[in-house]
Each structure stands twice: as C-alpha cells, then as structure tokens.
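Same chain as my last thread, 128 residues:
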Amino acid sequence: QWQLVESGGGAVQPGGSLRLSCAASGFTLDYYAVGWFRQAPGKEREGVSCISSSSGSTNYADSVKGRFTISRDSAKNTVYLQMNSLKPEDTAAYYCVADSHESVERLCSAWRNVYDYWGQGIQVTVSS
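reply #2:
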C-alpha cells in the first residue's frame, strides 16, 4: 500500500544515535526531492531535513543542524536521516515525503499534503 516506507526508529537515550531509512517501492527515488518531517504530541508537523533530486542541495531545521545528516543511496533506492546527539526534544513521529517538482526549500518549509508520495511514519523516542 505504501510506496515510501520508513524504518530504523525506536527508543534511544539522550546523546544516542539512530538512522532512519526511507525506502521507495515502484519508482526511482533519485528523481524526487525527499523530505523528513516530524510531529510531536501537541505540536504541528515540521520539516526536519530535505534533499534535492540531484543531491546537490540540502536543508535542515535550525534545531537539528550539526546533529542530523540527510543522504541518498541510489543503489538501494533509499534516503537516510542520520540522527546523532539525540535530545528528548527530538521525540516525535517521523515521516518521509517525495516530490518530483519541489525545491528543498519549499519542501521543508511546511507540510502541504500535495506530495507525490509519503510514508506512514515511524516513532523516535529519546528518553532516559
């Protein structure tokens, strides 16, 4: 049913690391800008990080700069979000989206419900 599937979430202590994967099925993810969004209880869904279809441009929310890294593995048709130095504030459901037309700036600016593909979300919990 889902053409984008997130994996790699779970529970981790503050300061720990996780790597989220966004794997595409039935289409080539290289041709799409891809974004990671997250939503914590009581908060709006916010853009975390986005990468262009060419991988030449990336975008990060101020809250994750220097800690998170977005990347592609074309051979695996997957986009990753490496999350280091995790904080309790990073606790949220994380979603990946893909769009063939959006710039990384536009893609990360706000959740718009107009993406070509989106995943079901995966939970990340950072606590002691």
